[in-house]
Specification:
Layout: H1 2-8, H2 24-33, H3 37-54, H4 70-82, E1 86-89, E2 92-95, H5 111-117, E3 132-137, E4 153-155, H6 157-169, E5 173-179, H7 183-198, E6 203-209, E7 212-214, E8 217-218, H8 229-233, H9 238-246, E9 254-255, H10 258-282, H11 284-304, H12 313-321, H13 324-342, H14 347-365, H15 373-386, H16 397-418, H17 422-434, E10 437-442, E11 445-451
Parallel strand pairs: 5-6, 7-9
Antiparallel strand pairs: 1-2, 2-3, 3-4, 7-8, 10-11
Helix pairs in contact: 2-3, 4-6, 4-7, 6-7, 9-10, 10-14, 10-15, 11-13, 11-15, 13-14, 13-15, 14-15, 16-17
Length: about 450
């Protein structure tokens, strides 16, 4: 959502999402499953890709793997060691936390508080319990490892991210995102080692999203209270799941429940019904024409916040093609949407704009000038796509099949009406009504249907 919106606003975005394909958990699980760490990581990465595709999540511009960036990690560790921020101990290399005076600021904790709460390790390999591993020596000969100035080993988790970030985005980046559970120690450590190595602020803006909870507890594998994306997709489509997430502010926890997802599904249904009803009223050609007229308006408001009609010829042409009241309404919708998203990505308010557009479109559809509802659906499609929704196609095979079956039922009913078999026509309508399917007969146009909430 963030990368989509920033691009919509005209920013030059490079989105990097790195893959941790080697760490203690991967090594241990691979050993249990009698496969290599690479095989295990590849298996789960492919599953992750399928899930992201199913949720209509755009792929990043760059997706580096930790195992492909080992040399870059070693360079940063050597730099830290030369500057006195790192030290070697029995083949391991640790970051010297006490030398980095800003340690703890990201998580708003003092070094004294962190030290008093730290567990003292019995091994005695560290100078300080808070010191974290930059490089880990191999424990067994068959363990995955790489050559380094400190002997065979592998990188620590935190240094992986700093190295990949620096390699593909430079020594300083604009936005770094992740879950709230990563603030400490992962992002705190990442910040410390990057700033110590490069002598500049690492990140301009940190974005930490809230947890998905169930019964007010964090959803996690350790608690056994989690669902997989595949589990969810068996019951709900991608638009519904995305709507459920975006109803909440990204920094707030998302309380998972079937009731919330059903409410989200009904919300998506309202938007899709508006799209389908208007498409059946004005046709796709009119909708495409309206879209071509609306896009310049959106682009100009995004760039300048206003429409200088006296300066731009295309805007003067638009005035002649779009009714003034419709133009004013669409400008208002666009501005409210942008203001909401500019306010720390207030997606809940942005969603309310989509409903306003859909509602107005439905009213215009049954007015004296139904052709104007095409402008509403054009704007609805554009702004909903900015949030990652696709209202134009069925999400599942069942939806496609349902649409085809309904077209068949409607054609049978239409044939009954042509034959003046009113009893059969009414019977079909009434039986569909029992299934919460509403038929809408239109003068000189095909009958349309929708699901009633």
């Amino acid at each position: 959502m963030v990368s989509r919106y920033l691009r919509f606003k005209g920013y030059d975005v490079t989105y990097v999402r790195n893959i941790t394909d080697v760490d203690d958990k991967i090594i241990n699980r691979a050993r249990e499953n009698n496969v290599t760490p690479k095989e295990l990581a590849t298996t789960y990465y492919k599953e992750f890709q399928k899930a992201m595709d199913a949720l209509n999540v755009l792929p990043p511009d760059i997706e580096p793997k930790a195992t492909e960036t080992i040399e870059d990690m070693i360079k940063i560790i050597k730099k830290l060691e030369e500057k006195g921020f790192a030290y070697e101990s029995e083949g391991d290399v640790y970051f010297r936390v006490t030398k980095f005076k800003k340690y703890g600021r990201l998580g708003k904790q003092s070094l004294d508080d962190l030290q008093s709460g730290a567990r003292v390790e019995a091994s005695g390999k560290k100078e300080n319990p808070l010191d974290f591993a930059l490089w880990k020596a191999v424990k067994t000969e068959d363990e995955i490892s790489w050559d380094s100035p400190w002997g065979k080993g592998r990188p620590g988790w935190h240094i992986e991210c700093s190295a990949m970030s620096e390699k593909y985005l430079g020594e300083q980046i604009d936005i770094h995102a992740g879950g709230q559970d990563l603030i400490f120690p992962h992002h705190e450590n990442e910040k410390a080692q990057s700033e110590a190595a490069f002598d500049k602020d690492f990140v301009n803006f940190w974005m930490h999203n809230g947890f998905v909870t169930t019964n007010k507890e964090k959803m996690s594998k350790s608690l056994g209270n989690f669902l997989t994306i595949n589990d969810l997709l068996e019951k709900y489509d991608a638009n519904t799941i995305r709507f459920f997430i975006l109803t909440n502010h990204y920094r707030m926890p998302v309380e998972f429940s079937d009731e919330s997802l059903k409410a989200a599904r009904n919300g998506v249904k309202r938007l899709r019904n508006a799209y389908e009803d208007i498409k059946n009223t004005v046709g796709e050609e009119k909708m495409e024409e309206a879209g071509k007229l609306i896009i310049p308006i959106i682009d100009e408001i995004v760039k300048t916040g206003q429409l200088p009609f006296h300066e731009i010829d295309t805007m003067q042409e638009l005035e002649e093609k779009i009714p003034a009241d419709m133009m004013n309404l669409k400008i208002k919708n666009i501005k409210i949407f942008i203001n909401a998203m500019d306010d720390d990505f207030n997606t809940s308010k942005a969603l309310s704009v989509l409903f306003d557009i859909a509602s107005v479109g439905q009213k215009i559809r049954v007015s004296e000038h139904p052709e104007n509802c095409a402008f509403c659906v054009a704007l609805l499609l554009k702004l909903s796509s900015v949030l990652g929704f696709d209202l134009t196609k069925s999400e599942t095979l069942n939806d496609d099949l349902s649409s085809q079956l309904m077209e068949l039922v409607i054609s049978i009913r239409q044939k009954s009406r042509e034959e003046k078999n009113w009893a059969m026509s009414d019977f079909i309508r009434d039986e569909l009504g029992k299934l919460n399917i509403v038929l809408k007969d239109q003068k000189d146009k095909p009958t349309i249907w929708s699901l009633q909430d």
